[in-house]
C-alpha cells in the first residue's frame, strides 16, 4: 500500500482535483465490491466502514483550500451529522461585549443544480425519467461555474478549508476579492489574490482565524489515516497568492511529517502574465517558482490553456476556453494518465519509481516537456493529435533593449534542446463499464503496434541527439481513459477522445530550454530594483536560481556562457 495525499490550493486547482476524484470514484465496483475494482482505490481514497449499511464508504485523501463562497452549494458537513452551519466558520468560543449597532450581513445560499439533486436523490420522479438515459445532459456551461456543481464524491469533513478574508465569484471576481472591499463595478477586481507576498501574509491570518495548531492538526489527521504514505500531489495556481501560502505551510510541516516523501507539484500557470516587461506578475512567478522548486521533488508546469493541434477534433467541438469545467478536463487528460500508474493494480508503480526514472539521482526536478498524443485509430486514419501542456511556460521575451540583448545572446548559442530522461505512458482504447474490450484481438494488436511505433520513432530521435537509451522509459496501463461511468465529465462537449483512440502522454526533463529560462529569471532578479525584493531575499533568489540552472547542463560545462551577467541597478 502506498497512499497519496492531495493538497489542492486555488479554485483552478480544485476543478482539476474534482475531475480526478470523480474518475477515481467511478472506477469503484459497486456490484462485486471495492476489492474487485480495476484500480486500487486505497491509494487516492480513504475507506471507512458505514456501520448503518455495513458497507465501505470512500472519501478522497485530499485537503482543499479555496476562497470563501467558492464551494458553491456544497456544505462542509452536509453529508455528516446535523450541524448548525451558521456557527461553522466562527466557532472559536470567543465572546465580546459590544454596545454599538450590529449589522448582520447575510448572503443567499447557492442552490444545488439538477445534477447534484440527482446524485442526492432529490429530483422529482417525472424529471428523473426524462434524464435517466442521458445524465450528462444535466451538466452544461451555465451550471458548472463551481467545481462542487459536478463533484460526485463525498469528502471528509476535514477536507475543506477557506480563506475567510477573500471572497469568490465565478464571473465578477474569479481570482478572489478582499472581503468588504468596495463592491462597485470598477473596483470588483481591484485587489485580486494574485501576488506571492499576499499568500505569505495570509498564512498568519489563517492561524488567527482558526487556531495556532490548525494547519498541523489538519494535515496530521490525513497522514494518520495512511498506512504507508508515499507522498503528496500538490496542485496549485502558480500565478497567484496561493504559492506564498503553500510555502508557509510546507515550512511548518515538511520536516516533521513529509521528510523523505515525494512531493509532486502541478503548477497551473497563466499565460496572461505580462512577459514583455518586469511586472509584478512576473516577479511573483519568480518567487513562486523558486520556493516550489526548493520544496518539491518534481515540478510539472501545466498550462491553463494548453496548446492543441489545429486539426484536432476538439477544435470542432463545443469547447469553451473560459469554462473551468472544460479547461480542467483537458488538464485532467494528462494528469490522470500519470497518476493512473500509482493505482493500477497490475503495475503497482510508486511515486519514487517515476521520480527516479526522471532525475536518475540528480537534483533536476523541472519536467519541462509535457505532452499528450491522441492516436486516432478510426478507419485507419493514422492521425495523431498533440496537446502541449508546458512549452509556453518557458516563453519569456522582454521589450527592454538591455534585457533583450542579453536574452538574444542566450538564443544565439546554436544549441539544440537535449533530453536527459523521458517517460512515456500509454493507455488502451476505451472499454465499456464491465471492462470488456470493444475491439477484436487483431485490432488490438494493430493499435498496440501503432503506439509502439510512435514511441520508438521519438526515442530514436532523442538517442540520435545524445540521450542515453537507458534513460527512456515506457509504461502501459490497460485501464482505458474514462473506462467507467463518469457522467460528470464533458465528453459530449469536448470530444477529447473517441472510442477507438489511444492515448500517449510523455514527461521529460530537458537541458537548454530549462537552463536558459532559469538564467533569464536570474538576470531579471539581478537587474531589478529593490522595490520588488528585500536585499537579503534578492541575493538568496540569485543564488538559488543559479544553483537550479547548473543542474541542467548536458555533458559539458557552459558556465562561461553566462559569466558576464551584470548586477547593475535597473
From TrEMBL:
Sorted UniProt keywords: Mitochondrion
GO CC terms: mitochondrion
GO biological process assignments: mitochondrion organization
Domain DML1/Misato tubulin residue range list: 143-337
Domain annotation Misato Segment II tubulin-like: ranges: 2-120
Keyword S-adenosyl-L-methionine: no
Name of one Pfam family that matches: Tubulin_3
Zinc-finger in keyword set: no
Location in the cell: Mitochondrion
InterPro entries tied to this protein: DML1/Misato (IPR049942), DML1/Misato_tubulin (IPR029209), Misato_II_tubulin-like (IPR019605), Tubulin/FtsZ_GTPase_sf (IPR036525)
Stored PANTHER family: MITOCHONDRIAL DISTRIBUTION REGULATOR MISATO (PTHR13391), PROTEIN MISATO HOMOLOG 1 (PTHR13391:SF0)
Main function: Involved in the partitioning of the mitochondrial organelle and mitochondrial DNA (mtDNA) inheritance.
Family, per entry: Belongs to the misato family.
Name of the protein described by the UniProt record: Protein DML1
Species in which this protein is naturally found: Ascoidea rubescens DSM 1968
Amino acid at each position: 500500500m502506498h497512499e497519496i495525499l492531495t493538497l489542492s490550493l486555488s479554485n483552478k486547482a480544485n476543478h482539476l482535483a474534482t475531475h480526478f476524484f470523480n474518475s477515481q470514484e467511478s472506477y469503484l465496483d459497486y456490484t462485486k465490491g471495492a476489492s474487485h475494482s480495476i484500480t486500487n482505490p486505497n491509494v487516492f481514497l480513504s475507506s471507512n466502514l458505514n456501520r448503518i449499511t455495513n458497507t465501505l464508504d470512500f472519501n478522497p485523501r485530499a485537503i482543499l483550500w479555496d476562497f470563501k463562497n467558492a464551494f458553491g452549494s456544497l456544505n462542509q458537513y452536509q453529508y455528516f451529522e446535523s450541524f448548525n452551519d451558521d456557527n461553522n466558520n466562527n466557532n472559536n468560543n470567543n465572546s465580546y461585549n459590544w454596545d454599538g449597532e450590529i449589522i448582520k450581513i447575510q448572503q443567499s445560499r447557492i442552490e444545488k443544480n439538477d445534477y447534484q439533486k440527482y446524485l442526492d436523490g432529490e429530483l422529482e420522479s417525472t424529471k428523473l425519467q426524462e434524464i435517466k438515459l442521458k445524465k450528462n445532459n444535466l451538466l452544461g456551461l451555465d451550471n458548472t461555474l463551481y467545481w462542487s456543481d459536478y463533484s460526485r464524491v463525498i469528502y471528509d469533513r476535514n477536507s475543506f478549508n477557506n480563506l475567510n478574508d477573500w471572497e469568490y465569484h465565478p464571473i465578477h471576481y474569479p481570482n478572489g476579492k478582499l472581503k468588504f472591499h468596495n463592491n462597485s463595478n470598477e473596483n470588483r477586481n481591484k485587489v485580486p489574490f494574485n501576488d506571492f507576498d499576499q499568500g505569505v501574509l495570509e498564512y498568519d491570518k489563517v492561524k488567527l482565524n482558526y487556531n495556532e495548531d490548525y494547519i498541523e492538526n489538519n494535515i496530521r489527521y490525513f497522514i494518520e489515516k495512511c498506512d504507508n504514505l508515499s507522498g503528496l500531489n500538490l496542485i496549485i495556481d502558480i500565478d497567484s497568492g496561493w504559492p506564498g501560502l503553500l510555502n508557509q505551510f510546507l515550512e511548518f510541516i515538511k520536516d516533521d511529517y513529509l521528510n523523505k516523501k515525494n512531493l509532486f507539484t502541478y503548477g497551473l500557470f497563466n499565460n496572461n502574465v505580462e512577459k514583455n516587461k518586469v511586472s509584478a506578475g512576473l516577479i511573483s512567478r519568480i518567487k513562486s517558482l523558486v520556493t516550489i522548486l526548493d520544496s518539491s521533488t518534481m515540478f510539472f508546469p501545466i498550462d491553463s490553456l494548453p496548446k492543441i493541434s489545429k486539426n484536432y477534433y476538439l477544435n470542432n467541438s463545443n469547447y469553451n476556453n473560459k469554462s473551468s469545467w472544460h479547461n480542467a478536463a483537458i488538464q485532467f487528460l494528462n494528469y490522470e494518465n500519470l497518476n493512473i500508474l500509482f493505482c493500477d493494480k497490475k503495475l503497482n508503480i510508486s511515486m519514487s519509481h517515476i521520480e527516479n526514472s526522471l532525475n536518475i539521482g540528480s537534483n533536476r526536478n523541472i519536467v519541462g516537456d509535457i505532452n499528450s498524443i491522441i492516436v486516432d485509430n478510426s478507419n485507419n486514419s493514422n492521425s495523431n493529435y498533440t496537446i502541449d501542456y508546458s512549452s509556453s511556460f518557458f516563453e519569456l521575451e522582454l521589450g527592454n533593449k538591455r534585457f533583450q540583448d542579453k536574452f538574444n545572446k542566450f538564443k544565439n548559442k546554436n544549441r539544440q534542446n537535449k533530453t536527459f530522461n523521458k517517460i512515456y505512458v500509454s493507455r488502451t482504447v476505451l472499454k465499456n463499464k464491465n471492462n470488456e474490450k470493444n475491439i477484436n484481438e487483431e485490432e488490438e494488436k494493430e493499435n498496440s503496434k501503432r503506439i509502439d511505433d510512435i514511441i520508438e520513432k521519438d526515442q530514436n530521435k532523442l538517442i540520435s541527439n545524445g540521450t542515453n537509451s537507458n534513460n527512456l522509459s515506457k509504461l502501459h496501463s490497460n485501464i482505458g481513459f474514462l473506462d467507467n461511468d463518469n457522467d460528470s465529465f464533458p465528453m459530449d462537449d469536448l470530444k477529447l477522445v473517441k472510442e477507438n483512440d489511444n492515448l500517449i502522454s510523455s514527461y521529460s526533463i530537458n537541458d537548454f530550454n530549462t537552463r536558459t529560462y532559469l538564467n533569464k529569471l536570474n538576470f531579471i532578479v539581478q537587474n531589478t530594483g529593490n522595490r520588488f525584493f528585500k536585499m537579503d531575499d534578492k541575493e538568496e533568489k540569485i543564488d538559488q536560481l543559479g544553483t537550479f540552472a547548473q543542474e541542467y547542463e548536458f555533458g559539458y560545462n557552459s558556465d562561461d556562457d553566462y559569466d558576464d551577467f551584470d548586477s547593475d541597478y535597473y
